[in-house]
Design brief:
alpha/beta; 7 helices; about 150 residues
Length: about 150
């Protein structure tokens, strides 16, 4: 499967926790059969995460190790920029040519870039949060991982 990993997956994998091991058992993400990518926006989110939480060297190395195994996708193409505008307007119920059956919402700007990237490159967005649900089937192939399922 071709996946774009949301930032929360990188954070989970960096912990080397039982949750990460259980997700890997179910999805086998890092098997050669999968193509894995992240948006460059995720790199910025991870950098902020490290700085805000004062992450130690061991965990930084683990994050670098996980990230090194992923393709990094730029957001500078016209198609991604245009899709960003579409998704933002659609999410707020203001895209004239496409209306959703949901209450208008303001998405985080980084989430919009991540969604636009997955959408343009036709990657399945793998995430642990529900921020993208209203885009499923309209703009995204989306797979939600319920973390509660993986907790003991």
């Amino acid at each position: 499967m071709d996946y774009l990993l949301d930032t929360n997956l990188i954070i989970i994998y960096s912990r080397e926790s039982r949750i990460a091991k259980k997700i890997e058992d179910d999805y086998d993400l890092f098997d050669d059969k999968n193509s894995l990518a992240i948006s460059v926006v995720t790199l910025g989110e991870i950098d902020a995460f490290i700085k805000k939480l004062g992450i130690g060297d061991k965990r930084k190395r683990r994050i670098e190790e996980v990230v090194s195994r992923l393709a990094k996708v730029s957001i500078t193409t016209k198609e991604i920029i245009d899709r960003y505008g579409d998704i933002d307007a659609y999410s707020q119920g203001k895209l004239m040519q496409r209306k959703g059956n949901f209450s208008a919402r303001n998405m985080g700007k980084n989430d919009i870039w991540i969604a636009a990237t997955a959408s343009v490159y036709d990657l399945t967005l793998l995430t642990t949060d529900k921020d993208f649900d209203h885009l499923k089937g309209e703009y995204l192939k989306l797979e939600y991982l319920d973390i509660e399922k993986y907790k003991d």
